[in-house]
Each structure stands twice: as structure tokens, then as C-alpha cells.
Design brief:
Elements (H helix, E strand, L loop, with lengths): L2 H7 L3 E3 L5 H13 L2 E3 L17 E2 L1 E3 L3 H22 L10 E5 L4 E5 L11 H4 L3 E6 L13 E2 L2 E4 L11 E4 L5 E6 L4 E3 L2 E3 L2 E8 L1
Antiparallel strand pairs: 1-11, 2-4, 3-6, 4-5, 5-14, 6-12, 7-11, 7-14, 8-13, 9-10, 9-12
Length: about 200
């Protein structure tokens, strides 16, 4: 059984072909030409983010307003399906972020929301559904821009604070939309070859 089917039974929402191959290629090209800014993490007990490359090594690309608007139009269209699937009422999403992982880049196991930490800012505490839009895959897309490693792995049951039980990898595909509850422990394994491109946002 494909791992996305297994994860679907556990609450994952997957839509293949959310973005077309041409759109993925255009966004990848724009990201590749952009300057790299290190992504941050928010340590427990802190309100602000820091760069900690022992925990997360990821580049953030600045894209045009038109590219962000294109992605947000797609998010707006899929919002009712997410609300039904996750049984939530959403008031919107955080501005999409455009990430690329070079060889050796990773993000250790973490949760995107934290309601237990009083220092967590409101925009972290309010996250309900996390979204990752994959702009290329391990098998390559129409233009063959594949990468190795960089696997998105889900740990334990999404409500299990210890993260025990299982670790299931999701094989990425170009244009794939992945959504999951923001309290689900997950990670991005190190990229071993090529460059991994993705867009991430969070529904409130």
C-alpha cells in the first residue's frame, strides 16, 4: 500500500497535481534566481526565531507578489475541502514561504503549532492545518529536475506528544499538495542529491 494511502487513513490530506508542471517549473526558476536567507526556528520558551543550523538548515527565497498571489488563489480554492477534511473553521492562512533545500539541508522532527508554551506567539498557537506544496520530486517532473533524500516523514500519531509509534515517509511528487494537523510531529530528512523546492503555509 502506498505510504500516502496509509497516511491518509491517519489524517493526511493529499492532492496530486495541485500545481501544474509548468507552474512548478516557473516557481523553481524564480526561487533558484533569488538570494538565499537562512530559515529560523523558535526555541521553546522564546517568542522570536533564531538561526540554528543544528536543527534546521533550509533556504528561504523571496519571490514576486504575483507568484505569491498565484499560490494564494489556489489555497483559497482548496480551503473548503481542508475545512471539511479536518473539521475546522479557517479564517485564512499565513503568507506562503518558499523553501529550498540544498544537498545536506534538513529540518529535524518538530511540530508547527504549540499551544502548551506560553511564550509561543499567537501566530504559532493559532495554526490548525499545515500545508506543504512540493515543487519537484524524487522521480523528477516533466523537465527531470529530481532530488535525492529530503523525505517528509511523519512520526507517531499526530496527538502523541512523545512521537512514538511509527515513522512513515511520504514520497514527493512534482505539484503535490500535502496538508496535516499542525500538531503532528514531522521532519524533512537531509537532501542527498540535487535541490528540493517547496512552498509552506499554515491555515488558522
Amino acid at each position: 500500500m502506498p505510504t500516502d494511502t496509509i497516511l491518509g487513513h491517519l489524517g493526511l490530506f493529499v492532492q496530486r497535481g495541485f500545481l501544474s508542471p509548468e507552474t512548478c517549473r516557473q516557481i523553481r526558476n524564480e526561487m533558484a534566481a533569488a538570494a538565499r536567507t537562512p530559515a529560523m526556528i523558535r526555541p521553546p520558551g522564546a517568542a522570536d526565531g533564531i538561526v540554528d543550523e543544528a536543527t534546521r538548515r533550509t533556504g528561504v527565497a523571496s519571490v514576486s507578489a504575483s507568484t505569491t498571489a498565484l499560490v494564494e488563489d489556489q489555497l483559497r480554492a482548496i480551503q473548503p475541502a481542508l475545512e471539511e477534511h479536518f473539521r475546522v473553521q479557517s479564517t485564512g492562512w499565513q503568507r506562503p514561504q518558499f523553501f529550498f533545500y540544498e544537498e545536506g539541508d534538513f529540518f529535524t522532527a518538530h511540530r508547527d503549532s504549540d499551544t502548551a508554551d506560553p511564550a509561543a506567539p499567537d501566530w504559532v498557537r493559532r495554526r490548525q492545518v499545515s500545508v506543504s506544496i512540493l515543487l519537484n520530486g524524487v522521480r523528477g517532473g516533466r523537465d527531470g529536475e529530481a532530488y535525492g533524500g529530503g523525505t517528509l516523514v511523519f512520526h507517531g500519531h499526530r496527538g502523541d506528544r512523545m512521537g512514538a509509534g511509527f515513522g512513515i515517509p511520504l514520497e514527493s511528487e512534482e505539484g503535490m499538495f500535502v496538508a496535516f494537523p499542525s500538531d503532528w510531529l514531522h521532519e524533512v530528512r537531509p537532501v542527498t542529491r540535487g535541490r528540493r523546492y517547496s512552498i509552506v503555509t499554515w491555515f488558522f
